[in-house]
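Many introductory courses stop at the sequence. We go one step further.
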Amino acid sequence: MTPAAPHRVELPRRRGLAALSTLGALALAGCAVGPAGLRIDTSHTAQGQDSRAMYLVLHYTVANFQQSLRVLTRGPVSSHYLVSDETPPKVYRLVDENRRAWHAGVSHWKGHSMLNAASIGIEIVHPGVIELPQGSFYPPFEPAQIDLVVALVQDIVRRHAIRPDRVLGHSDVSPQNKIDPGPRFPWKRLADLGLVLWPDAARAAALRPQYELQLPELAWFQQALRTHGFDVPQHGLMDEPTRRVIAAFQMKYRPARFDGQPDAETAALLQVLIEPSDRARAP
């Protein structure tokens, strides 16, 4: 049996013109064409919204540029940006900011966990710690490379309105197994630009003598570190997880010594940081 020819319906010319006119009016009124031709009205915008990027997490790669690029583009680990150590250094965008990069892994900060979904990651090409006969050595970052990192952080923070207490290192959000971006990363430079939370040095120095007379119990350190943002045990005992968290805090705010032992200077810095944020932030 021969199939019948398809039946074609002709719209009256007047209706076709009216439809086109309606489409034009909708476009002027703020319509967008969505999936499968779905017309979506965009003329109203809700005030209750902000960026999905709540956090910015800084890393180093522990590899040279070519290895870093291969790992971050061909494997399960990724980041939104890679800052190279080329001459001159370059910023590479590897993942669009609207998409999730797999850079933070098992992570936690101030009650939020698994931060990949709500963060932007920056990887910096750097060898990490080098073990020498005389001990561990952290090479400095190249100044031109840090200039690029600072400019990139400023741009991301501005566009996404990321708060200073949410610009973090991998060692902040994963202190049990990560130490990057390490003690040579210039956090104070970011603090001077208002990009990260920083303790007032004079106030910390004024508090230190009282803690030298009597150091708080370990439970105080654990509670203060949790208030600051870390995921840390709360049992009042000195164990390896607690030591790693203290070391991560010291590496960022007192990089001259980060042995993970509670002391008066650490207590003073912590006390200043957990007080109201308007008094703890850099000017």
